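Section 5: illustrative case.
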């Protein structure tokens, strides 16, 4: 079955939502990561925020190029305050995204 342009745009918008959600989640986590482990987490996640935003920009550009409209609606996420829980949650979501 051939994929229509609308289906492709819808799929790209789903990916866009995931990228935006990840960027916001990482930003929240860098703000909430406290203590000795928190500094290391902040150092790890800061570059990921920029990378996720670059991915989002790329996807938005592709959606527009296909004649669509980017839906800037990030996927919701559960906030974690414990550093270990943050990293486990991130790992789980990354595996689901693959």
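Designed sequence:
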């Amino acid at each position: 079955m051939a994929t229509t342009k609308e289906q492709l745009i819808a799929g790209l918008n789903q990916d866009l939502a995931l990228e935006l959600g990840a960027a916001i989640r990482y930003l929240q986590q860098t703000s909430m990561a406290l203590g000795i482990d928190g500094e290391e987490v902040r150092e790890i996640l800061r570059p990921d925020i920029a990378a996720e935003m670059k991915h989002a920009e790329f996807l938005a550009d592709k959606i527009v190029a296909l004649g669509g409209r980017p839906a800037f609606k990030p996927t919701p996420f559960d906030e974690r305050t414990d550093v270990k829980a943050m990293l486990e949650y991130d790992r789980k979501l990354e595996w689901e995204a693959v």
